[in-house]
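Reopening this ticket.

The earlier resolution said the output was attached, but the attachment link was broken on my side. Pasting everything inline this time so it's all in one place.
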Amino acid sequence: MNSIPWSVKIATLKNWHLRSLKRREYFAMSAFQEQLIGLQGRMASRAMAIEDDVPEILNSLPVRISDAVSYWAEHSPDRPALVEGSSTWTYRQLASSVIRTSAWLLASSVRPGDRVMLVCENCRAFVAILFALSDIDAWPVLVNARLSAREVGEIQNHCSARRVIYTTDASSQAAEHANRHGAIMENPVDWGTVAVGALNETAPEMNVPEPAQRVAALIYTSGTTGTPKGIMLSHRNLLFVAAVSARIRSLTPDDRLCGILPMSHAVGLSVVLLGTLLSGATLHLSPRFDPMTARTVLERDRITVMLGAPVIFSQFLQYAKLRALKVLRFPALRIISSSGAPLDSEIKSEVENLFGMVLHNGYGVTECSPNIASTRVEEPRTDTSVGRVFPGVEVKLIDRDGQPVANGEVGELLVRGPNVMKGYYRAPEETAAAIDAEGWFRTRDLARLEDGNLFIVGRAKELIVRSGFSVYPAEVESVLNSHPQVAQSAVIGQPVKGNEEVVAFVQLLPGSSLTVADLAEYSAQHLASYKRPSEILLVATMPATLTGKIMKDELRKMAQNLPVELNGPAPATKQMKL
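Inline output:
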């Protein structure tokens, strides 16, 4: 696979050239990107008109996510697109790398409709491979390298990946996965070394006729059953959210964004990566977040926009306290925004005092690519509302009987629009349960609307959002229950300042000598770090109904006085019994 036949290279280049000519003709009239050029000096007035411009935005979207760079590669080829450490790619270099990567993938026997897993963290190699897969109509399966061996294996088996590619240069954990699977190290293009797994003789999926509706990303969530569930997001899904979110923030080619959110997740992919590149702006990539490095990047590179999860902003607060800093001021920074988890009012207030600017808020789910609501730059909020409904998206709130609730009342949130997923991969029954015949997606979240602003009240399901990552209790319980000395377990989420932690109650089999430390080690072997319980509590019996259903409300009451620490890297090793 190291040597790409010239016949393949030439065929790929010819194919790309023909498509490029069509793209040039298309993008010459691209309303969205032409409008961006003249946005400076009239940002607020344009932001107010986004709702009216949605039909125009939809009509002017590129066809594929890889087309996001085409306009700028043609019109501003020397403008920086991606910055990774001391290395920078211009838009011309990025487009060129995508061409060479497409040729490499074709020579590696990747076909249209093949699922190709990217076990990754943020880096240029990820972007080039993602766009190259888009160009050849393969399906990128995006997998965070922080997942455990079990989780990676389950996703690989479910999607029947043709190839698995590991971004080993940017991620030591990706390298560990690669070593375990016997992947071969390669350096085929100009983005460094990756590891490539063996070819899997599996059948490709049939792509739909319309390219914009083909699968641009397959992102897995464990689901309430604890088994992998692949969310199929189309090119149109992702590009719609990218374009509108860029308009909400009035992004221009002069903006520099901080790429700290994982691009293997929906918000990092659509809002951060694609939103930046559609705007001709510059994205500074970071595989991991730490506040000291982030502060250096914000100052040195004059970052203008930073999006992060609440836990990221909490770490900034902790960093400032450790160094006795009252303020952190970055003159170029004009927007900071939180997403991925509920934003605590105290965290919001403290961050705003530290940065001297408004901390914006947003809400979404992966199935909606992910944006559903976002606060507006021109309408800053002093509360923790997630803002106005995303332009072009419809919502409704219903009661338990499926009837609309009155204005200001709490109901289950349903969403319809260009952001809603194609469905769950290989799960037609689950797709039908999630999206009704009229196209409404059930978020299972509880919300209310006040004066056009959305407030998320709670979750109808038991989903735990920890450090911006989704944790499903059923998955953690399944791992704990698989231990031969465990009778049963129950997992709940416990709110802490700026985050939510995972608490596990475990009932052992009679005569067991198992300790909390033993269970912590067992969890570490089978779960990603953010899914591992912060506290494991051994109980003699579980509170249960007459039918044997565990009463989690009682467990939540028990957990209220527990000293759960924020972002504990591993479960507590002290043994606690209730």
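Reporter confirms the inline version is readable. DSSP finds 18 helices and 26 strands in the chain. The domain at 6-236 is CATH 3.40.50.980 (Rossmann fold).
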